[in-house]
Amino acid sequence: MELPSISMFLDLSNNMLEGPLPLEVGSLVYLRQLFLSGNNLSGEIPDTIGNCRVMELLLMDGNSFQGSIPATFKNMAGLTVLNLMDNKLNGSIPGNFATLTNLQELYLGHNNLSGTIPDLLEANVLGNGRYGTVYKGTLENQAIVVVVKVFNVQQLGSYKSFQAECEALRRVRHQCLRKIITCCSSINHQGQDFRALVFEFMANGSLDGWIHPNLDGQNGHRALSLSQRMDIAVDIVDALDYLHNGCQPLIIHCDLKPSNILLNQEMRACVGDFGIARVLDETTSKQHINSSSTIGIRGSIGYIAPKYGEGLAVSTSGDVFSLGITLIEMFTGKNPIDDIFRDGISLHYYAEAALPDKIMEIANSNISLHDGINNSNDTRHITKTKECLSAVIQLGAEIVNE
């Protein structure tokens, strides 16, 4: 039997093996588990070990390996457990361990290594929400990068949020809605309730990070052109139209805002986060008993329809109000809860006051810089741009005022 044909696991632990680890270890390209613990293996760990890309468990503790940790470990994307304890390794702890999105346990103690051990979970955190934490991960076959939303079961309302999202997402299928891959409701290894949703990874993050790039320390260079913003706006409207008119029963999102709109590799917009969505009953049009039903204002401050503050029931018009605010924010770059909006001044009043003559004064400067409008001598181009901005911002304001 040749080494490359070995799959699943190879256990050579506690066999008093001596000498260096052969370079041929890199030919174990199908091996998932390799146990070398408790021997007297020495020398440097060969760089070829990085060829074992599907390796999940690698135990090399209790030997006499020397030298630095190979940088090629970063190629072993399948690793969930790596144990290098009780060796004679030296040098710096590779920072690229944090890029191993599946790595859950890393043991480096009792060596001569310098630096800090990366916080594996923290390195993969994409964000924290009202009911849980969102992580970046990779499916077992390594072909698909995913986002895992893990619910904090101790948080009041998290179960209803999980239930509402499952109820809504199982009914929808549209290119402008974020695709769910699977869900999990089980018991973890500590005997506690565990609930999670697995979504497709959206390579370009949230729309909010593009509208307000200065708030994202790693993406201050981000800018959306006018045409890109128009395309994204069309995608959002398309998604909302599907939820309200193309679904049976219809679905009310209840929390439409830029941070809940994700952009894929092609910069297509997908509406996500259905944690407080409402599904309306097919026959009675009453709110479905399985959807989230917390008491009080539903949604995010700045995007909530005023009628919700008056205690009225959720409806499609609430989503439409949020759409209007989102459209204005997309093209002005102003957040509805910015400090300038106080004493009766709101985002849509601010926008209306600038229509049509002062529209370029309130337009997001990133649009002009990205499209080269400021440096353009093409009067026709500038005029068309003003007309486009005026039309879409006016549409947003009219939607809000309905």
Care to describe what's here?
It is a single chain. The protein is α/β, with parallel strands linked by helices and 402 residues long. The protein folds into 3 domains: 3-121, Ribonuclease Inhibitor (Leucine-rich repeat, LRR (right-handed beta-alpha superhelix), Alpha-Beta Horseshoe), CATH 3.80.10; 125-200, Phosphorylase Kinase, domain 1; 207-401, Transferase(Phosphotransferase), domain 1. 26% of the residues lie in helices and 20% in strands. It has 10 helices and 19 strands. The protein has helices at 120-123, 158-169, 207-211, 226-246, 306-309, 316-332, 347-354, 359-362, 365-371, 379-401, and strands at 8-11, 18-20, 31-35, 40-44, 57-59, 64-67, 81-83, 88-92, 105-107, 112-114, 125-128, 132-138, 145-151, 180-187, 193-200, 251-252, 261-263, 269-271, 278-279. A 5-stranded parallel sheet has the order 1-3-5-7-9, with no helix packed on it. The chain has a 5-stranded parallel sheet with strand order 2-4-6-8-10, with no helix packed on it. Strand 14 and strand 15 (193-200) form a beta hairpin. Helix 4 (226-246) packs antiparallel against helix 6 (316-332) and helix 6 (316-332) packs antiparallel against helix 10 (379-401). 31% of the residues are buried. The model is unreliable at 284-295 (pLDDT under 50).
